[in-house]
Every structure is written in C-alpha cells, then in structure tokens.
Amino acid sequence: MPWLVAIAFLMESLDTTVLNTAVPTMARSLGVPELSLKAVLASYALSLAVFIPASGWVADRFGTRRVFSAAIAMFTLGSVLCGLSHSIPALVVCRIIQGMGGAMMVPVGRLTLVRAFPRAELVRAMSFVAIPTLVGPLIGPALGGMIISVARWEDIFFLNIPIGLVGLVMVWLHLPDFRGENVPPLDRMGLVWFGSGIALLSWTLEVFGEHHAGGRVVAVAGSIAIGLLLLYWRHARRLANPLLDLDLLRFRTFLVSVCGGFLTRLGVGGAPFLLPLLYQTGLGYAPLHSGLLFMPQALGAMVSKVFVRYELAFFGYRTMLVGNTVALGLMLMAFATVGAATPVWMICLQAMVYGILMSSQFTAINTLAYADVPNDRSSRASAFASTFQQLALSFGVASAGMVTAGFVTSRATEQAEMLSSVHHAFVILGMVTIVSALVFAVLRRGDGDSISGHHEPGPVSDSAPIPGSATAPAT
C-alpha cells in the first residue's frame, strides 16, 4: 500500500521540479519577462497553504480513499488545464486548482499511512514514500530540460496524465478507507478569514513587485490583509477546534520552528526560481544543461540524510540550527559570485554543499516542531507547520522576483544586466536567511534533546511550554 501513496508523492515532486527549469522558455513563448512567471510558481504554494489546514477534516469526514482519489483527479485535471493555457492569468488559475489537489493529496496520504501501519512499521513505510521526494529533485530539472529541448513547454504538464490515471485506478482498488469518529464541524469562517488574508497579502507582494499598482493601493491592500489575519486570530482564540490551533505556539520549540522556519524558507524559497534564471538567462546554458546542474544539489540533500541525525545528537538543536543557518545564508550569497568564468565543477560543488545545508536545515526544523507537542495534538501541529512552510515558500518566490525586479533597469534584456540583478537578489535572500539564525538562538540548552539524543552536562531548561503562560498546555 505505501507504493500507492508514493505514486502521488512522485507526481507532486516531479511537477514542481520540472516546471522550475522551464521558466525562461515559458517566458519567451508567452512574450513576457521571466520575472512575471513567479506568480505561476507562487500561486501553487499559496494554494497549498490555504487548503492544507482543511485536509485532515475533509479526510475524516469523507474517507481517505475518496478524498485521496479526488485529490489525484483534481491535481491531474489542473495539470491538463495548465498544458492548455497560453497566458499567465490562466496558468495561475490552473496552478491554484493543482494546489487544491496537492493540498489534499500529500497530507491525506501521510494520514492514511499513520492509520494503516502500527508504530513499529510506520518508520519503514514513511521512509519508502519519502523516496519520491528525493528522486523528484534529482531527475525533475533534467527531465524538464530534456522535454523543453525536444518538445513544447506545455508538454511538461501532460507528464502527470499517465501517472495520475494509473494512480486513480490503483488507489480506488487497493487503498484502505479510513474515516474519523465524532468529527467536529469545519471551521468555515476561519478558512475564509485566513485564506482571504494570505491570498490578499500574496497579491499585494505581487503587484508591488511588478509595479502594477500605486503605493496607496498597495498600502490599503496590505492593511486589509493584515486586518483579515487579525480577525482570524481573534476568531481562533474563541473556538475549541479552530482551523489552525494557535495554542501550539505556547510551546517554545514549536514557536521557534515555525517562526525560524518561515524566515529561512523566505530566503531559501526563492532559490528554485532564481537558479534557472542564473543558469539559463545569466550564463546562457541550455535548459537541459541547466537541469543537470540541479543534480548535485539533490545528491547533497540525499547525503545529508545520512549524517544529520548524528549532527543533531552531537551539537543539539540550538547550536546546529544557528550554525547551519548562517552557513546556508552564506552559501546563498555565494551564488552571487557565479559568472561566465566560473568552472562547471565549481558550480556543481557549490550546489552540492548548498543541498547538504538546506536538507539538514529543513530536517532539523521539521523535527523540532514535534519535540514538545503532545501526541494527541501532533496532527494539528503537522497542519499548522505545513501551512506556514508552503506560505513561506510562496512568499519566498514572490520576494525573490520583487527583489530581482528592483535591480532591473531598461537594459534588463542584456545577459549581463539580468545576471547582475539575480546576483543582488541572492545576496539579499542570503541576508534574510542569516537573520533567521537570531530566532533559533532563542532556543535554550536542552531544547529538543528528547528527540535529538543530545545531552549536555549540567542542568537544562524546561523547554515547554513557554514560561509565564498560565494557560499553556501540559506536556
């Protein structure tokens, strides 16, 4: 049964990584600047952030088999519609449809495994379905470059059709159907407040970066977006089962994981958008060669999986995250040194080191989130953390495009000018990433030791909940 979930994970992973390589070619075909394509990438992650919080409720209410099948169907339909689109607005709408399917597909797949396997076998099952998330970044960019070289960019979306059809049949025949008991009502108002707030905030970043609206319009839209999110915060504090459980933020390790992870992804999230621009537009590489340059990064991510647990056990979460975050930010800034004279082996080495640091960072952040959260609230913690992960990635792409556009002049069509603009963007994103190290420095000695296996001599602090919170839940 895990291979059924793995099919969906592979489809989602391939779709994202294949598309990144095609951005410059798509821009030329549509007759728009490359930076305009950031909306196509960001809209998918934004759609995930909006709908992931409701995925658990939908699965409990309608059953995992039905929801998982519908998610694959919607994702596949969105892919077909993307392939038939010939404008940025149409692509954005279709990517949102894809995101709605992806928001249900991946979380519900994980939930099915949790309910189908005993604890003793869960790690093995989860490890198996995690393989596509490693294989996708390894072969996706090169596959995208290959398709672009021999066919049209629209064909990269049709790649999901056979995978989706096979997955639909197999899921309906073999996936167990789990339903929740005593399912509480869906927090519909919370979904409206939260979804509207982050969607409007994302739109504000988009129009600000593209200079499509005046300063007054941007200020008003941004203020309304913040107001909607404040309304959600007030609404959620009154409910026993809100869309996102804000009480989880009373756990220091969870709060640091979410806030530090958000800032880190805000910097790192723009890299998949900027690197194809660097390789293809800035350095003049063909799409296939550009895709191949992503392979060292994926290999580095695989390598990090081998030793990151030993790194955490030796250094502990605080030391490891602070040091790794600074190194990750510096490595992002180092991409600003890549130019026409940089040898390919140096680019590959830099990409591999970046992949190691990035994978180690996300592994540490993702596991820290559950260090002190009780088991009966882990599903809520997962939805909360996943939502803000996708939200940060969406904002990261938008911010990367906005920063790059800020350095573009009337000579932006020249290769050297675009290369310089991308270099400036990498420096700023690296600085944002380094700033997130200050958030991880808030961790205390001993925080997360229960899952990292790290032990320091002397007394350690109680890591959860946050001191001074009289209503903090017990651990």
Task: Outline the structure in words.
The chain has 475 residues and is an all-alpha fold. Helices cover 75% and strands 0% of the residues. Helix 1 runs antiparallel to helix 8 (160-174). The longest helix has 40 residues, at 295-334.
Salient structural properties:
475 residues, Growth Hormone, Chain: A, 75% helix, 0% strand
How are the SSEs ordered, and which strands pair?
Layout: H1 2-30, H2 38-51, H3 55-62, H4 64-83, H5 88-116, H6 119-150, H7 155-158, H8 160-174, H9 188-210, H10 215-236, H11 252-268, H12 271-282, H13 287-292, H14 295-334, H15 344-368, H16 378-406, H17 415-440, H18 449-452
Helix pairs in contact: 1-5, 1-6, 1-8, 1-12, 2-5, 2-9, 2-16, 3-4, 3-5, 4-5, 4-8, 6-14, 9-10, 9-16, 11-15, 11-16, 11-17, 12-16, 12-17, 14-15, 14-17, 16-17
The CATH architecture of the largest domain is Up-down Bundle
Q: pLDDT average, as an integer?
A: 83
Name of the top-level CATH class of the largest domain: Mainly Alpha
Assign a percent range to the helix content: over 70%
What CATH calls the topology of the largest domain is Growth Hormone, Chain: A
Largest sheet: none
- Share of β-strand residues: under 5%
Give me a quick take on this structure.
The chain is mostly helical and 475 residues long.
